[in-house]
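User: Modeling request: complex.
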Amino acid sequence: MSAKSPDRAREVVLSVPYFAHLDTSAMEAVASSAIRRDYAKGAVVFLEGDPCAGLHVIEKGRVKLYKVSVEGREQVVKLLGPGEFFNEVAVLDGGPNPISAMAALDATLWVVGCAAMRHLVSSHPSLATAIIENLAASSRELLSLVEDLSLRTVSARLAKSLLARAETAGEAPPRTSQQEMAAQVGTVREMVGRVLRTFEDEGLIRFDRHRILILDREGLEKEAMI
Amino acid sequence: MTGADLRTPAIDEELCTGCGDCVAVCPEHALALKDERVTFLHPGDCQYCGDCEELCPAGAISRTFDIVFSSDA
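Assistant: Request completed. Predicted assembly structure:
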């Protein structure tokens, strides 16, 4: 379903931290070009390699950005929530979507088409600045991911992921499966299962039915090499 | 027990091949085949042990977890 609602679009644009300093004309230009789209949990927003799908701003829900190997193994690159935007890379360089996106929870997104977005960026310097700042932050996160994948063991990556999830417990999405953990840390489900059992044997965690309790935070931080 | 305590592993019906291995391995006999697909016949008996998830050759069964610090539990 798609719909245009300038007032609502304006509110969503204002909710994006990087857009907080947009001048009024830039904010109005983005809001008036945005089209609302709703996605059910699990719905694909766009696929890697397809023509630029435009800049997407999240009003509600969570979106997973991921890549898939030819064998079908998934690597989660980033999880985004309300007030964040994505796919600016394709908008800026005119190339295809560099990544795939899926609604991790029911999501409401506002989309500005590639051509419209490029025109807005070139004519509104404050918008260009906002996008550059977002790209810089994304670059830092990607460098951290590269560090994790290349310099940390699977155990260390999983320990780090468990700690990060516990620290944001209560925020959506609240639950994760071993498959989802595997996709985030760059391994397979069976390995996650083995490592978690090892952590339990070492007294770092305990399985309590549908909860994983972190018993030894310091020990897990040491395992995570942080 | 609350509703959350009785959560059972999720079964992806599109991946499930109806092989029945999970039914055989479940120590609590909580699973059964129905219309060639597995379902939780006795969800209250499920102990969330994960044997079914480990064994499923199709990867159709998955448990979800809340990850929390024990001090916050």
